[in-house]
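Q: I'm building a small set of examples for a reading group on sequence design. Run inverse folding on the following structure and report the sequence directly after it, with nothing in between.
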């Protein structure tokens, strides 16, 4: 794992790791914990390495929101209730639109999920996790978690939304709105199984529908096909063209940039540029990763070592395969990773939908 900087033991004991939790892309190996090889360390400039070690040590002692859930002020509780109610309304709206289109795949669900397999499906995913992520209570919990992390009205938040967990995309968007946070998202068209993988109801297209219906203000500043290389390179040529066309059309409707990168590194650079442009010089208070977009997570093994939830900023990946999340943490931006839904639901009090 060239370029990987591992957190010290106190960090692992406090936050755990992702190894063995099965939350990542099919074919992405789960690496056993290991120290950075001497050859890899030699390749890292001394100044960068020293800075990495100092940041890593600091990260071990950084105080993050507790899992216990401290009491919140009445105004925050009211904001949480508004976000949950808004999510119920938005889901009902999408469900009705899917029924009209004859595309409601999950009759017992809330309406956001797609089918097991469609041409826009990239990888395997858990149906239980996708249904659990549709629970409107996520919106309320995220309001409380974001407030507990110190985010306040006017703070700037950057995020990556894949199509894999449309419920969490919606919940996070509404939570930020309820707290008055400035949210800038780069959204992906493609999704894993049971995600937003139906043409006409991919996540960017649902964002368009929700904004037209008055349920959500547009939050995407960029739209990409997603998947391998952020261009759906892992799909069949016809499906790849469809994903690109949906991304282009949705970007235009949302007033966002259409991302058509030449490589994964180019995709990461384009996403970072869009976030910086949207921030308008304001400090980024948080970066949120929802789902498993390669451009956000990167493609090195380093990300396997991370837990879901809040992560303090430390340079966990210095490889050429690192994604936006690693670059944000290098720059001192804390991260909220919403990926291992079952783990987060158990920790945050959301019922598992089996």
């Amino acid at each position: 794992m060239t370029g990987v900087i591992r957190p010290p033991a106190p960090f692992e004991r406090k936050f755990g790791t992702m190894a063995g939790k099965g939350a990542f892309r099919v074919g992405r190996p789960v690496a056993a914990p290991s120290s950075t090889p001497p050859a890899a360390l030699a390749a890292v400039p001394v100044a960068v390495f020293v800075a990495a070690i100092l940041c890593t040590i600091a990260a071990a002692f950084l105080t993050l929101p507790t899992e216990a859930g401290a009491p919140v002020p009445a105004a925050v509780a009211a904001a949480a209730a508004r976000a949950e109610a808004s999510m119920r309304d938005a889901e009902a709206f999408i469900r009705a639109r899917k029924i009209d289109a004859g595309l409601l795949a999950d009759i017992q669900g809330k309406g956001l999920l797609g089918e097991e397999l469609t041409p826009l499906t990239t990888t395997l995913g858990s149906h239980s996790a996708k249904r659990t992520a549709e629970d409107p209570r996520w919106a309320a919990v995220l309001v409380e978690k974001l407030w507990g992390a110190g985010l306040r009205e006017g703070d700037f938040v950057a995020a990556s939304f894949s199509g894999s967990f449309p419920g969490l995309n919606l919940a996070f968007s509404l939570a930020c709105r309820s707290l008055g946070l400035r949210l800038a998202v780069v959204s992906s068209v493609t999704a894993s199984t049971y995600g937003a993988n139906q043409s006409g109801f991919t996540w960017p297209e649902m964002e368009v529908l929700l904004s037209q219906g008055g349920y959500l203000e547009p939050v995407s500043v960029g739209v990409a096909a997603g998947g391998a290389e952020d261009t759906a390179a892992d799909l069949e040529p016809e499906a790849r063209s469809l994903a690109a066309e949906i991304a282009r059309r949705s970007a235009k409707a949302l007033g966002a940039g259409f991302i058509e990168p030449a490589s994964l590194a180019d995709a990461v650079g384009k996403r970072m540029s869009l976030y910086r442009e949207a921030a308008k010089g304001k400090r980024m208070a948080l970066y949120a990763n929802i789902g498993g977009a390669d451009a956000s997570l990167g493609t090195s093994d380093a990300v396997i070592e991370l837990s879901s939830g809040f992560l303090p900023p430390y340079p966990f990946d210095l490889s050429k395969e690192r994604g936006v999340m690693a670059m944000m943490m290098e720059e001192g931006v804390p991260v909220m990773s919403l990926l291992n839904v079952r783990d987060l639901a158990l920790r945050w009090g959301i019922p598992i939908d089996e």
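Residues 74-101 form the longest helix (28 residues).
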